[in-house]
Structure formats: structure tokens, C-alpha cells
Amino acid sequence: MDNRDQQISILEVLHRIKQKKITVLVSLAITFVIACIIILPVPRYYNSSVELAPELGLPTGSSGGLGAVASSLGLNMGQGNLTDAIGPEIYPELLKSNNFMMQLIHVQVKTQDGKITAPYYDYLLKYQKRNPVSDFWYSIIGVFKKKKPIMLAKEINPFHLTEQQDGIFAKMKNNISCSIDKKTNLITINVEDQDPLIAGTMAEVTSEKLQDFITNYRTSKARKDVEYYQKLTDKAKSVYEKARQLYGSYSDANMDVMLQSIKSKQEDLENDMQLKYNNYTQVNTQLLAAKAKVQERTPVVTVVKSATVPLKPSGPKRMIFIAVMLLISFMLTTLYICRDMYMNLFK
Question: Scanning 144, 196, 204, 251, which has the fewest C-beta atoms within 10 Å of its C-beta?
């Protein structure tokens, strides 16, 4: 078609719409009612987020300065060779694990109006606002299903979850998300909930639990070394004290004795005490070094953005949803009215 034909076609479409304006208005009215029925009962939800900047281990065999420059340019040099087996890219999967969820189910949460105080799991199980439309269909389906007893947080076995518990865990994983900025390694934890105070509370608690995990992981080897050297130090100290007491008692008992055999025995006891003291000081030095290693391995996680209680809901975007539904309805109605015109184009 040339421009003139296109203009005539557009005018024809507008003319058809004007002729069938009753059909268009009825279609839009029906769509508006259906869209309102769908979106208005959906409970509002709030989002709260935390941003963390973790300290990373240096890649083995690489320069820290060169790595920093590469990171600032968005390049990832040697990240696969980090001394840590669990890097930031693993944290999103970590937050989705049942073991991590188990650390959150017993967190005491309180709604902003103060009417509900319960463990997070029990709150999701018993106090969630539901969509009455979807609830109606679920209740119909539920008539044909066998009712199962409600199990609270204290009765959960993460190794063997029931269908109900698995559903709550899935909801927790859907509410709590984690993302990583590969360029800056910035960790963003986002929590969605129907109550703004609970959203802020769980965002803060989740970030704390993640920081604890990072710290425990990075220091686990060093802490085991501390325990090992602490046992050696305690044992060496006990052995040394016994040797010192034996030497002191023997020296006091034979203070005025001039026999060479007594002096030889006293020297042997003194030498043995000195050897045990040297052993004690050596393992004690290793213990102090292991404790210093724990401090060295303890990561510094900087909270770039702390959790806050959101003031406005994040969704659902009701007006946008209704507007989009009306636009789609208008387009489909227009296609239906002008269907003969479009069919002629393909003849």
C-alpha cells in the first residue's frame, strides 16, 4: 500500500470503531469489571532490601592490585581460583537451601499493628491474607482432598518435609531472594511480605544469618586449629606443672644433702622440667598464632544499605494492571470489528 491507502485504512478503522462504539464500550466495561475482580482482592505486599559488600579472598597466584583494577573494569580475573570454595556467586543458592530456611523459621516476627507475634513459619502458615477469589476455588478443590493436620515450626524435620511444610518453605524461598552484582560483588537481599515491619525484620535477620554463615565458613579451619592447639597447650601445661612440682618437692627434701647421686637426680628433674616448659611455650605460641589466624580470616562484611521498614506497598500495581487489561481488550475488540478488512489484505 502507498501512504494514501494506509490513511484510508486508518480512517476506515476509526469509522468502524465509531459505528460499533456500543460493542467497544461493553467490551471495555466487562474487561474493567473482570480486571477489578482479579486484581483488587490481591493482598498488598511490601519489599525491604539489604545490600552487603563482603570481603573476598584473593585469587591464588594473582596480584591484588591487578585484580582490583580488573574488577573496576567489569572483568573477572581468576575468580575461579579464589581460596574460598564458596564465593558470593553461591550465596543465592545457599539462601534457597532448606538448611538455611531452618535458621529463619523460628525467628519471632511481629506485625506493624502489634496484633500478631509468632515464629515466621507459623505466621506464614496461619496469618497470611488470602485472595478470596482464589480461596474459593481452593476450597472447592479441598473438598475432594483429605485434610491433613497443621504442623507448627517446632515439629519440622528438614530431612523429611510434609507437603504442607514444603509449601511453606517454597513460599519462604519465594519471599526471600538474593542477587549478586558480578561487577562489584555487591550482595542484595530482598524480602517481600504482606506486613512492612515483618519485611524489614526478615531482611535484617536474613542478612545477619548470611554474615554469620560467611564468618563461620571462612574461620572454620582456623577455629579447629585453635581447638586442637588449646588441647595440646592444656596438656603440655599440666605435664609441666607436674614436673615443676616434682622438682620443687625433691629439691626441698634434699636441700642440705651433698651426695652426688642426689645432685644428679635433681639435675635430671630440672632438665626434664625445662624440656616440658619449652614444649609448653612452643605449643602456647602456636595457640596464639592460631587465634590470630581466626581474627585474620574473619571477613569484614560492610552493610552498604541497611534494612528499613517500607512506607509504601510495592504491589500489586492495580491501576497499571487494569490499564493494560483495558488496552488489550480494546485491541482485541478492534481486531474483531475490522476482521473482514484484515482478511482482505491476505487475499
Answer: 144
C-alpha cell of 89? Answer: 556467586
Any bridge partners for residue 177, and if so which? 190
Q: How many CB atoms lie within 10 A of CB 26?
A: 12
Considering the domain boundaries, does residue 306 fall inside one? no
Instruction: Answer yes or no: are the C-beta atoms of 268 and 251 closer than 8 Å.
Output: no
User: What kind and span of H or E run contains 239?
Assistant: helix 196-253
Closest CA to 49 of 203, 205, 207, 172: 203
Q: What confidence tens digit (pLDDT) does each residue in 49-102 have?
A: 999 987 765 444 444 443 443 444 344 444 444 445 567 778 888 888 888 999
320 & 287 share domain: no
**Candidate from 39-53, 262-276, 314-328 with smallest mean pLDDT:** 262-276
Residue length, the chain? 347
The helices-and-strands tally (H runs, E runs) of the chain is 12, 6
Contact at 8 Å (CB) between 304 and 51? yes
CB-CB neighbours of 337 under 10 Å? 18
Structural domain boundaries enclosing 329: 1-42+316-347
Q: Are 84 and 57 in contact (CB under 8 A)?
A: yes
Number of domains composing the chain: 2
Task: Flag the least confident range among 88-92, 293-297, 316-320.
Answer: 88-92
Q: Which of 154, 137, 134, 153 is nearest to 145 (CA)?
A: 137
Give the C-alpha separation, 344 to 12, whole Å: 14
pLDDT at 224: 92
Asked whether the whole model's pTM tops 0.85, one would answer no
Question: What pLDDT was estimated at residue 81?
Answer: 44
Q: How buried is 137 (Cβ within 10 angstroms: 0-12 exposed, 13-18 middle, 19+ buried)?
A: exposed
Whether 156 contacts 102, CB under 8 Å: yes
Find the angle CA(6)-CA(10)-CA(14) to the nearest 5 degrees: 170
Q: Does 155 map to a domain?
A: no
